[in-house]
Amino acid sequence: MLPIESSDSDFIGVFDSGIGGLSVLQALRAEMPHERFIYWADSGYAPYGERSDAFVIERCHFITQQLLAKGTVKAIVVACNTATAVAIEELRASYPHLPFIGVEPALKPALAQTQTMRVGVMGTHGTLRSSRFEKLRQMVLTEASPKSCEFVVQACQGLALAIEQQTEKAANDTQALTALCAQYVHSMGAFGSQSKQIDTLVLGCTHYVFAQDILRQLVGPDVTIISTGEAVAKQTHRLMTEATLRHQSTPETGLVQLWTTGSLQAIQAAAKRWLDLTADHCHQVLAFNANSETRG
Questions:
Q1: Given 156, 181, 205, 282, which residue is catalytic?
Q2: Residues 210, 243: one domain?
Q3: Residue ranges of the alpha helices (H) in the chain?
């Protein structure tokens, strides 16, 4: 299998199981507008949250190798909660000289925000069943002691895929996605600012940011919705600055390439809708790892 075409320019790599990580890329571009970014949407194998750990780890190694084949990688942002939970420690061990920045559900900021001490967490099965998530939850609760908080955790089977599919639909064609969001929100219980209600909602999957308007309508105006994109962007910026890896502002900086193992039309639509990027920024990866499970 041949790697994707090479480039002489250094860049920050960003990847996700699909288009969800574009929400993180949005924040990264806002924080570091002069950086080059190459984004990999592994949509042909999405969603990771419903795959085996071994499969996710294999894909993460494969994508890392493909990004390394593109040129000098300054850092890789794993813009996927499931991939972070399952694979980031192995990636760091395998590529010790390459900085990896992950994403994880924003439990600590949510605890600082909540007044009712009931926080909802929406995520994939892969993220919420992981030992990394459980360690994070226990750590946050321990640090908060003697204050106590209930995290109402909801695994959202199929939601990331529905958001992925929404990309190619008309902007007002949201009936199926709204119904799925409503199913999971209602399963969590009452939302609001009153005692025993959930007053803070953590989006534990980068895809879910693109359903935030629907979720807002469902939970009401008094509920704080927290995602991780801005925090990840600031952390990446800090690491780049400490390592003196920041790009200087030149006419050739700030370029973005988007690669997908799925539908080229879908990534083009997503790039236009959420990043205001034209179709020529988008490319399809025709080669894939033959040892991986059947595509999703």
A1: 205
A2: no
A3: 22-31, 53-68, 81-94, 107-113, 125-128, 131-144, 159-166, 175-188, 212-219, 229-242, 264-270
Q: What is the pLDDT of residues 230-240, one digit of tens each?
A: 889 989 999 88
Catalytic site residue 60? no
149 and 194 within one domain: yes
Q: Is residue 156 flagged as an active site residue? A: no
Please name the residues in contact with 283: beta carbons below 8 A apart, sequence gap of 6 or more: 4, 257, 258, 259, 260, 264
Q: 198 has which bridge partners? A: 191
pLDDT tens profile 51-68: 999 999 999 999 999 999
Instruction: CATH number of the domain at 202, please.
Output: 3.40.50.1860
Range of the domain at 26: 11-103+230-284
Q: For 18-29, b where at least 16 C-beta lie within 10 A, e where not — what string?
A: bbbbbbbbbbbb
Where residue 254 falls (left for φ over 0; alpha for ψ -120 to 50; beta otherwise) is: left
Q: What is the pTM of this model?
A: 0.86
Residue 222 identity (one-letter amino acid)? D
Sign of CA dihedral 125, 130, 135, 136: negative
Q: Are 196 and 53 in contact (CB under 8 A)?
A: no
Q: Per the residue annotation, which of 80, 156, 181, 282 is the catalytic one?
A: 80
